[in-house]
Amino acid sequence: MTQSNTSRQGTSRRVTVVRSSFIASGRGGGQGGASRFFGGPKSRTLGLAGLAAERERAKARLKEIEDSLGVESRKDLADLRREDHPDTDDPLLDAFTMQNDDGDGNWEDEPEAGEEAAALAIRDLLGVRFPGASRAYKDGRTWRQRLQNFDDNWKIVLPDICKAYLQWRYGTPAPKDPEILPATEEFQVLDIYSTATTATITRDRSLIEDLVLHGYLGTAPLHPSLAISFKTLELFRLLRTFKASFSTEAFTKLLCYVYYIPYRRFYRKAIADAFDIYLVILRDVKAQVMSALGRDSDEWRAKNACPACANKLLGEEPPTFDRMVVMDGNNSLKRVLASGGRATADLRLFKDDYFLPRDFVDSFANEVKSRQLPRKPVLAENPHDIEEPGQESEDDEVPDGEGEGDPTDGAEALGSCATNWKAAAADEKKRMWSIYDESGIFASACRHGLILWIADMVRSGELAKYGIAMTAKTNRVLKGKNMHGYDIGCEFLFTIYRSSIGDDFRASGSSFCVNSFHGYSHSYKCQVKYHPNRIVGMGLEDLETMERIFSASNQLASVTRYASPYRRRMLIALYFEHWDDEKYANLGQMLYNNYRQALEIIKEKTPVMQEALQALSLTEEDVHRFEAEEAEYFTNLRDEDPEDLRDILYVEALRELREASEELKDTSARYYDRAARAAEAADAAKAGVTFLTPTSGPTSYDSDLSATRKLETRRRYLRDRVDRLSADVTEIEVRLGIDTRWQPTDEKYVNATKYIATRAYQQALGRLQRLVIQRLFELHKMNLAQTGYKARTYIAKNLQRRCKAIRAAVKAYNTTAGALDPPREPLDWNKASHYNFIEEFHLLADTRNDLRDKPWTTPAVREVMRLSQRVARAHEEIKNVHRELRRVHTWVRDEQELFKAVLDDLKDTNHALHGAVLDYWRRRSVLNTRSMAYVRATYELPEFSGDREPGVRDGPSLLPLHLQGRASMAVSSVDAEVRGTVGDDESNDALLGDDDEADDEMTSLIEYVQNVML
């Protein structure tokens, strides 16, 4: 702003006063920043009157500084000014000293401030005398030191500002010192709701506390020059809660737009620092609330966050599995490592009960050693092998560092499931660049979607140690017989058995299985034992919870990729806290939907199954017997007989020897024929015989000579090859103990020839199986939400190539199938591209006709078996929902009594936490209201056959010990306090009609595959 004063004589004098500004956050310099937040350096032009006023202000400031100096400092200042030393005689002081000459009161001289303090005071004094002087201060500290000092200063004041926040937020009266007269001060503030740039702050405490008591948080702990309103920070928290990808930079640009100022990076830094401290304050308040509720014990959240899993009741029907736990890894939440091997400057550690400590995870490192995919020996070239376009060789695989194994390396032998999983993981490892420090997360959750624990995957892929650590934590904390769902659970189970926790895991009765959707890509031999549809007690649970979680949490990737370790973990924890709240609110809805789905399956599938049984003259006992026979067959199914492989090796060597011998005989005959004709021509030339020109065209002596030499070279090569093959055949005969060489008419030779044809058929079938499974994986990735455009384009191109390769593989399969005795029926492309085709691979692979007389191999019987399993799982889901509905109902009732007792106790004692606990209960009541709406809706279903009354908790009471006497009190007062949370006129139908579109989108793929399988 420019002002000017013009003298009456028409002349004017102007001077521009420039005041420099610093970063508003104060994080770099430690003093708290700028005199102004908006616009950087400020200047104004003064006239004569303005200059006079400026001189008076400078004199007042000079006197203030001089009065604050000690005696020695005043003498030093006088020496600099070349003035006499000031008179320090004080008659009052002399009188006081004379009255104490009796020695009763002895004074101890307090040392003056050091030379550094005096120098700083003199520097400020000179700056006031010469306001136009320019001075630059060079901070010699490193960035890490400045951040550490900044954090240490915040730790000192955090307890006080947390108390002040409770006083401001919930209206708790603050104690005041009657001897201190409050003063007011104008302070630079930022408030998106009022767009004010200054606020009047009443001063009676430290500046940072006074700001908090007025609803503002300073951007520096000691001497802030800018404060941001709590309402603004809360708005940012809510935006980030409901839109995880919303960044600090985006919010800062929004504020700059509202304030009509250009965006600058140090604005973002100031808001980011303040937001960090705001979250720390909220976490401290929540910790106090949880302590008041008696929920501050170790692992309380993991044990009790999901009442459907944890709130066991007296007299309830025991479940098959105490809990169903899912786990998986995800590489979206990576964090880029500092370039050049530099260490991060932000050394803060984010501690939260979501994350497993790194040292705990690393304690299971190297229990499983890395094992590469073995190269299979090729007995003979397969003419029907189709090399897929763009296929990469095994040489391109990048093994994990440190020699640590993946989840499949603990098994004795690699099965087909492990081989396929390794192949898919190898493609990820090729893209796991070394620029990342944390390369993703490995997480676990209950079947209802509430997070249990998270572990950072550090500079590695999905190693075995993460799954072992997660299983060890679950087994130790949750105890009981648990079912763990993992996409490679069939192989990881044996890894667990061979780990350090194997004995404890066996003793608990827990087990592993595969997820429903991932399970369809496993071999049918694996599905018979490990697929959820085949496991008694699983109900309709698909165990694909982690896929839904990661599909949503991928939104965090854009804001965590370049964050510090502290902020990355903070944002992840902030996201999953809100995720758990949403899943808790949706417990009733999930159980309601599962119950209706089970009723629908029973209603629709049972009549169809009964009609099919009647048409096939079967009973349900027959179907169960068929299932047992099928499981036994695939359990005992083994690979090729080693004796057959030896016969194949010998017969193929004989074939090669015979083919090479025949070719040598033919080549030698042609060579000798050409040599004989050349000799006849030479004899005729000597006798003077003239040959006529050939009618077929001109001849060339050079070309004839070249052809003859080629035949000679080929003949020598074949002769050497026959010698080598003869030696190989002889060696095989000696090793196998064969006295007489087999002939093509011998029975063993004929049988081996048939087996070679069968083996070619098996290889073509295996090739087709691998391609279909890869297509299934890619279709799954293609349908995941938040998959980037480049990734979708890459997958789409791969799918196009994969479909062409599948068509070629089908053609090769039909060729080899026709060569069998008897020939197999050809495959159609439409059938091969269907997911049901995966379970038929093992049936098609039966070339010994061991299944020829098995009724359960026919398509009609197999369809009845699938229907029977689906109906059985639906009946199990009915029982599971009955049990979990009652648990949720009981939990909501007990929690209401808990809050009633705690709130009454806090209110009676006028505790500062009363407002915070009441606020927490109001929001918790909204979640409980939504769940109970669906619980009551389930009770009202005509087909409902469970208990509609809450039960009694089997275990310790939710109430703290000192409040258990209040448990029988009425809850009406709490209802009155929270009545405004949900309107009385809001019906259950309105809540039931609030569909979650995001949940529908994430579950559509699973439902589609389940329908296909039926």
From TrEMBL:
It comes from the Eukaryota. Keywords: Coiled coil. Residues 609-674 form a coiled coil. Pfam families: KDZ. Residues 21-42, 375-412 are annotated as: Disordered. Residues 388-409 have a biased composition (Acidic residues). PANTHER family: CXC1-LIKE CYSTEINE CLUSTER ASSOCIATED WITH KDZ TRANSPOSASES DOMAIN-CONTAINING PROTEIN, CXC2 DOMAIN-CONTAINING PROTEIN. This is CxC1-like cysteine cluster associated with KDZ transposases domain-containing protein. It comes from Polyporus arcularius HHB13444.
